[in-house]
Design a protein that fits this description.
Chain lengths: 758, 283
């Protein structure tokens, strides 16, 4: 980079890391308010049923039970959802899945609450249930919601695919499926609350979006904005599932009625049962190339199963449609992604919002075409990979920060070396090796809708800086990066900045910690606030130093003349003077990326202001006798614009790879069957391969100091790279995730590897 | 979990007395790595937990009159680290390598592994190939039963509530080849989808002269697979023979279990793992 930075670009120690390592920090479950009551919900034991009656008498008779609430006790609007409101906090006349809550029990102890919940009697009239989204779309299918089972449909149409298929050199059509996935964040959902001296309901919660929680709880209770305050407790991961209201609404309801402290901590089983999952997809895709390997057409029909409620389903459908092409320029596109209600556990946001599912399809197709044409997998991606100046399927001209080809170039030497020295190295006669490539692009922020962030940057008359931001740090490190950005602008150290984070009582809305958006969007909002503050300080310095503004810069807590740095004045002095004159030292920052809403028929528009790009290479060894897959190494190149905190970027990449291994090989949530980590397998450290993270910096002009995002991109290319690796090892492709023992051994047998080798 | 009384007896005799007194309202707890899970899920609802984990009488691995004796209270970590087992029962030692995690190995006991009667207990196939006998102490005195009789079915034990496993007695053997292998859904902290243990000696002419083989996790209780042993003994191990032996193994398994849905995987995988495990004996 030409520009020199002092604070951003360094892996400074992360906020709270010491308190986390020493165990001093308080997560939501650690918050023990005096005399707090315990909550527990009675959940449905029917996937689909009408509620005939709810009898709470026996529950109330349980010793230690204080109250039992049902839908009738909800004073406001009993419908939740960030995009479409379709999910009651407590079921009214029907349940639509096993996760549905029917009654809320408040008790003195955990045991009493549990016994109380068990004693709530619900009389159901069973209804036929539908679990398969393709079935759910058929005529005459059971209706999960009155408006029908089709929640939404996103189309992206460009050019003429049919004409392209006719003239194509090679056409390949396949179907892919992906599984439902549990987020399995380390901290199960939890929260606690009390009513403060002003009658305000104060709720601490493990959450990714405190300002959304606030709006939702206010609506649920029908109270004024200032009667509810959400404080984000230190949050132990979320991966998207803590974007929904989990415990917050229940705590709010109990506080509203009882006015005494309460807490609710999900067991792992309840977190599995009752929170959102990743949408399973069925993807039918047909692609065509010319004789040189250039993709000329892509047609896709995909269905994603959102289960009983929408949650982020519409966003997942929308984003997946936009990402269907992958990071490739394709002239003729016809994509249709439907989001469908069924009686499964509801699905919502999960790291990647549909893009990981799409990546399985576009990366598999890429390899299939390469094979058909005798092209190298890396070469075909180079031919088709997006470059600045090209236009995406939604008609967006990509002008800058298109680092996909750079990612391919970065992986190339590892790829060539692995092909030459590793692939053919002698190994066990019953083990086969394969190298797989996976590419991805990922739009930063929400899809074609406004998604602003705000922040306040304040300086005290003594020169101390405080940033107020609603941006929830859920472990990814946004608080540290926002402090770095502020410090960079104001010539301070990152630890000179006091951060006040995620408290609706004193921070303004920064939107969700999702869509890999916080560094880019909240980073820009904070930068905007800091620059406004910097401007008044510089104006004041002009007066003091008698030098024009453009000759001044911030350094070490001072404003100095650039060519004569010894001529300087401390920021504290400037602050004091501004304050004494009645000037303002408190500035509100704002940023909303420039997007254009997508046309409902063609998807034309500008869904995102910028995109992250990545390429992973997987080296896998497959045991042809047992179906076991050993991922030896993942080389992961990521274009992040500018890595403001390289340590955080590497952390995201390694974590993403680990999650990608799970998505590729073992994870599968089966509603009604999967209960906890005893029957749901996430990778252990032994399953995580060596990771070679490579940071590519292709600065984004609209990003804060050139930054984009990496949180979700980190995961997306891993599974397709592994699947492509397995396919090349076995000469047999797997189209369904996870590629578990059963599927791999089947592929091995079909490919004829399961036999005497001598 | 409701309230449970915790009792820590001072000796095996003491423990038996308590167990005899409390009957089925008491449960033995050793490492607790199964018991705690079962308590949480409601699988068991005892009023008393009798903790035998610190009883010295249940500790130790030693040779006694040409027999290899392993106390029921020996932990998987102790098995993992035992030189005596490396020499005389290496397959058992190997079964401790991929057993759960280091933390669990530090407290989980071999007695608990066997007494829990899970079809997937990893120490059982190695015990079976050493034709282990189980020493039981109860209010009527001591008994010695073959390892294969401890489980009468999945999670169903032959033991009376007042009975306690005190030790396992193995036939030690320095076999030319011994191994344990398992397949799980991931590399660590995985319950076996299938497991097997083997010991092989060869004659000077290269034919198999001795073989003990046991299959775990596939049948309701782990089994020594005598037809497979008989088929292999007297033959020269080739890849082809291993595939044939594995085929026979899969057929013997299906004979016991019938064709359940999991067979789609287990049928080839049992054969495959057999080939993988025995491949080193092909010359
Ligand atoms: C995360 C996790 C991973 C695991 N991984 C594996 C694995 O890889 N392989 C595997 O085989 N197992 C595994 N297990 C299961 C468990 O760890 C083993 O079965 C272990 O050996 C049990 O021993 P323990 O001492 O903890 O038994 P406990 O839980 O104390 O007892 C188990 C049962 O045996 C009875 N019992 C204990 N000692 C005696 C005795 N001396 N006489 C009579 N009855 C007795 C108890 O009453 C109880 O019924 C795992 C468990 C967990 C939680």
């Amino acid at each position: 980079m030409e520009q020199q930075f002092r604070v951003v670009g360094n892996s400074v120690p992360r906020s709270c890391s010491k308190a986390k390592v020493t165990g001093e920090i308080k997560f939501a479950a650690d918050i023990k308010l005096d005399n707090s009551l315990v909550l527990k919900t009675k959940r449905s034991d029917q996937p689909h049923a009408l509620i005939r009656s709810i009898n709470v008498e026996k529950a109330l008779a349980v010793e230690g039970v204080r109250s039992v609430f049902t839908a009738r006790d909800i004073p406001g609007k009993n419908l939740l959802g960030i995009i479409n409101k379709d999910q009651p906090l407590l079921a009214e006349d029907r349940v639509r899945s096993l996760a549905d809550a029917v009654a809320l029990v408040v008790a003195d102890t955990e045991e009493a609450a549990e016994r109380g919940a068990a004693a709530v009697e619900v009389e159901y009239q069973e209804l036929e249930a539908v679990f398969d989204p393709v079935e759910a779309l058929k005529e005459g299918a059971v209706q999960v919601h009155e408006k029908g089972n089709l929640l939404s449909c996103r189309k992206v149409v460009k050019g003429d695919v049919e004409a392209a298929f006719t003239s194509a050199y090679s056409v390949i059509e396949k179907e892919y499926t992906t599984s439902s996935i549990e987020h399995n964040y380390i901290e199960p959902d939890a929260g606690a609350g009390y009513v403060d001296e002003n009658g305000c309901l104060v709720i601490y919660a493990s959450t990714q979006n405190p300002h959304y929680d606030h709006k939702e709880v206010v609506g649920l209770l029908g109270v004024a904005d200032d009667e509810v305050r959400i404080i984000q407790a230190t949050t132990g991961g979320g991966f998207g599932s803590k974007l929904d209201l989990n415990v917050q609404g229940f705590i709010g309801l109990a506080l509203y009625h009882l006015k005494c402290p309460v807490r609710y901590v999900y067991s792992r089983e309840e977190a599995y049962l009752a929170t959102a999952k990743r949408h399973p997809f069925v993807i039918r895709v047909k692609t065509a190339t010319d004789k040189d390997g250039r993709f000329i057409a892509l047609q896709m029909r995909a269905v994603c199963n959102t289960g009983a409620y929408g949650s982020y389903g519409m966003a997942v459908a929308s984003r997946s449609a936009v990402h269907a092409t992958g990071p490739y320029a394709i002239e003729n596109v016809d994509v249709d992604v439907k989001c469908v209600y069924t009686n499964q556990t509801f699905c919502g946001a999960m790291r990647g919002f549909g893009a990981p599912q799409m990546a399985l399809a576009h990366e598999s197709q890429m390899d299939l075409h390469a094979q058909a044409l005798g092209l190298d997998p890396l070469a075909i991606r180079r031919i088709n990979g997006l470059r600045a100046g090209q236009t995406s399927a939604t008609g967006q001209l990509l002008t800058a920060s298109v680092g996909f080809q750079d990612c391919l170039d970065a992986v190339a030497p590892y790829y060539e070396d692995a092909k030459e020295n590793w692939l053919s190295a002698p190994t066990d006669p019953f083990k086969r090796r394969g190298i797989g490539i996976g590419g991805m692009w990922y739009g930063i922020g929400n899809t074609g809708v406004q998604n602003p962030s705000t922040a306040r940057v304040e300086m005290s008359p003594e020169g101390k800086v405080t940033v107020f931001t609603g941006c929830a740090d859920i472990g990814q490190g946004s608080t540290t990066i926002l402090a770095q950005i502020t410090a960079e602008v104001l010539g301070l150290g990152h630890d000179d900045i006091t951060m006040v984070v995620g408290d609706t009582g004193c921070t303004t809305n920064a939107g969700a910690t999702s869509a890999s958006r916080q560094t880019y969007i909240s980073g820009n909002a904070v930068k905007d606030g800091a620059e406004k503050l910097a401007n008044v300080l510089l104006t004041e310095a002009v007066d003091r130093l008698r030098a024009p503004k453009n000759s001044l810069h911030f350094v070490d807590g001072h404003v100095a003349v650039s060519i004569a740095p010894e001529i300087r004045v401390s920021v504290a002095k400037l602050a004091k003077r501004i304050h004494d004159k009645g000037g303002t030292l408190s500035w509100q920052g704002f940023f909303d990326p420039e997007t254009v809403p997508l046309d409902p028929e063609t998807g034309e528009g500008v869904p995102y202001a910028t995109y992250a790009y990545a390429c992973h290479m997987a080296q896998v060894e497959v045991d042809v006798l047992t179906g076991e897959v050993d991922v030896k190494r993942i080389v992961a190149a990521h274009d992040v614009g500018h890595a403001l905190h390289p340590g955080n970027v590497v952390g995201q990449i390694c974590g993403g790879v680990a999650m990608g291994v799970g998505f590729a090989l073992m994870e599968e949530f089966e509603p009604g069957k999967t209960e906890s980590m005893k029957d749901y397998h996430v990778p252990t450290v032994s399953d995580v391969p060596e990771v070679v993270p490579i940071i590519i910096e292709s600065p984004e002009p609209s990003g804060p100091f050139g930054a984009k995002g990496v949180g979700e991109p980190a995961l997306i290319p891993t599974a397709p790279a592994i699947i492509n690796g397995i396919s090349s090892a076995l000469n047999k492709r797997i189209y369904d995730l996870p590629a578990n023992l059963e599927r791999v051994i089947e592929a091995s047998i079909q490919a004829g590897h399961f036999r005497v080798q001598e | 979990m409701s309230k449970i009384a915790y009792i820590k007896p001072d000796s095996v005799g003491d423990a038996i007395e308590i167990l005899a007194d409390k009957g089925s309202s008491a449960a033995i707890i050793a490492g607790g790595t199964d018991v705690m899970v079962d308590l949480r899920s409601g699988e068991i609802t005892p009023e008393y937990l009798v903790d035998i984990s610190r009883l010295e009488e249940l500790k130790g691995i030693r040779m006694e009159n040409d027999e290899l004796v392993i106390g029921a209270g020996v932990t998987l970590s102790e098995i993992y680290n035992s030189d005596l087992l490396a020499e005389y029962a290496p397959a058992l030692k190997k079964s401790a390598y991929n057993f759960a995690s280091a933390q669990i190995r530090n407290i989980a006991t071999i007695g608990g592994n066997v007494a829990h009667c899970s079809p997937c207990g990893d120490t059982i196939p190695p015990l079976v190939i050493h034709e282990a006998e189980v020493l039981l102490s109860g209010k009527d005195g001591q008994k010695r039963i073959p390892i294969e009789q401890v489980a009468t079915g999945p999670y169903r034990s032959f033991l009376e509530p007042h009975e306690l496993i005190t030790a396992f007695v193995l036939k030690p053997r320095k076999a030319a080849f011994a191994d344990f292998k398992k397949i799980g859904r991931r590399k660590d902290l995985a319950i076996s989808r299938l497991s097997m243990a083997v010991m092989i000696d060869k004659s000077d002419d290269g034919t198999i002269s001795f073989m003990r083989f046991s299959l775990g996790a596939c049948t309701p209780t782990p089994h020594r697979m005598i037809p497979v042993e008989e088929f292999m003994v007297g033959k020269k191990p080739t890849e082809k023979l291993l595939f044939e032996g594995g085929r026979l193994l899969a057929e013997s398994m299906i004979e016991i279990t019938g064709r359940r849905p999991s067979i789609i995987y287990k049928e080839p995988a049992v054969q495959g793992l057999f080939v993988r495990m025995l491949h080193p004996v092909v010359n």
